[in-house]
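Re: Re: ligand-bound prediction request (bumping)

Still looking for help on this. To restate: I need the protein modeled with zinc ion bound, output as structure tokens. Inputs repeated here so nobody has to scroll up.
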Amino acid sequence: MISDEEALKRFSLRKRLFAIVGQVDNGDLPAGSPMFFYCWYCSDLVDELPEDYTTVPKRYCDECSELISRKLLLEERDRVIYPEFDTL
Ligand SMILES: [Zn+2]
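Reply:
Sorry for the wait, this slipped through. Here it is.
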């Protein structure tokens, strides 16, 4: 298992990468298009579902899920990245 410091470093790199890659705005797609869902933390693509999806889309990528389980991402989020959110 990688260290906490290394895991956070990788998270930071993912965030920067996916900020550059950008996201599909589902609202811009024509009717019938699949819906794209991105990790709440790093914006990696985590789910692609049909427009009439009935399952709950994934919220987090596997890497961020690991950080959440280690309680690292919450601290990082509260401190710097998503200061507008107070609770999960
Ligand atoms: Zn993620």
